[in-house]
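Anyone have tokens for D-alanyl-D-alanine carboxypeptidase-like core domain-containing protein? Sequence:
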Amino acid sequence: MRREAEKSAKELEEATKALEKRRAEIAASERTLKTKLASLQQLEQRVAAMRQPVSQMAELLYQQPLMGGILPFLTGGADEKTLRALSDANQMVAVRQQAVEQTSTLYKEAERLAGEAQELRAGNLLAEAQLAAEVDTLRQRSDKIVKSLTAALVKLGIKIDKVGRAALGCNPLRAATADHYPNGLIPPSMLCPLQQKGQSLRADATIAFVSLNEAYRRRFGKAMCVTDAYRSLAEQQSVYYRRPGFAAVPGRSNHGLGLAVDLCGGVERSGSAEFVWMEKNSKRYGWFHPSWAYSSPFEPWHWEYDPKIDSLA
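Reply: yep, here.
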């Protein structure tokens, strides 16, 4: 159960990262699209601006026709007005030709930008549709994992309410989300109950502890004894003042992160069979006895969870 949950959680975490990357790519593509559309609009404005002088010169020629002045020019009798009109006509033709060439270039550039913008639009729509489908698939897979875990945990003796609300925190995908809350202020909905009544931990720690508990039960014929697991900030303050020197400063304890337990039933005695068994086997399930707890202060009952040391992949 635990291995399957951890494998699924890892796959979903990687898929979630891929979705986030896809979202970033779509956002970048949208920014590129906006830039191309802005460039296209600027090109259209330039084309309109280039058409204006040609139109003005054509209107001037219409107002001052040259047909009457061509014959005198050809016979050598052209006056200054006629020469100026011919010069203006030549200039108009040259400017018009230049404008036609530049406008043609701008039109080609505009067509290219329009085509690229259209491709970006189509690509973004397709990417968004694929993203929505992948998110839906992930959600369905997550729901399936949680239901399977909840059923397995119930069989192992974890008490939940009639609608399974207390087990919703057992979703391994939400384990990392618990890190977003301050020490000792993790909402109950983010915690998963243990088999030991009244105790709870972060989802991944709970799943690992249940597996450890079952191995312990097979060895000693009884469930592990737990005196403390997750502590709220208020509970940590109470323990700190009641047992000075034997509790971390409120807001700094791993109990407040839902990643530590205090054990009894023999484990609290260093050198006992239960303690020695824990030293030899706990790391297989991601649990360990921290080095400081061997001496300063000496707390053989205190054990912590670290998914990085879990050897059961």
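The chain has a mean pLDDT of 75.
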